[in-house]
Structures are given as structure tokens and as C-alpha cells.
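Much of what follows relies on a compact textual record of a protein's fold. A record is reproduced here so that you can trace the correspondence yourselves:

. . .
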Amino acid sequence: MSSHTFPDDLLTLQRSWQDTYAALAASRPESPATLRRRLHRLSVLLAVHPYWESAPGGGRSARVELRRQARRLP
């Protein structure tokens, strides 16, 4: 069981980031510039999310756990 409980909006942001990254990594992505801009915007939103200000142990391990939990989202 994870010791991190993330807000739903943060998990959704991370999942969107992962989906966008996968689309950009495709062999011939449609509109790569648009995907790069979206990836950048999502990266900023993830970095400045209010959760990180009050996160218990909000360091590297929390970010790894966030990515792991987001991969499990439908």
C-alpha cells in the first residue's frame, strides 16, 4: 500500500502528461509541435500544483509514485 494519497486532479494531469508523451513518441505523430506545447503546459501544471506545497515527503519518491498510480488509471 502506498503512503501517498494524491488528489484526483493531480493524477489526471499526470495521466494526460503520460498519454501526450506516448503520442509524441509515436513513430510519426500527427502535429508534433502541438503535442510538444501540450507536454510543456502539462509539465508546468504538474510542477506548480498546490499539492507539492503541503505534500508529506513530496520529493522524488512521491513523484515516482504519482507516475505509477497514474499509469493504473483507466
In short: The first helix runs from residue 8 to 25. The chain has four helices and no strands.
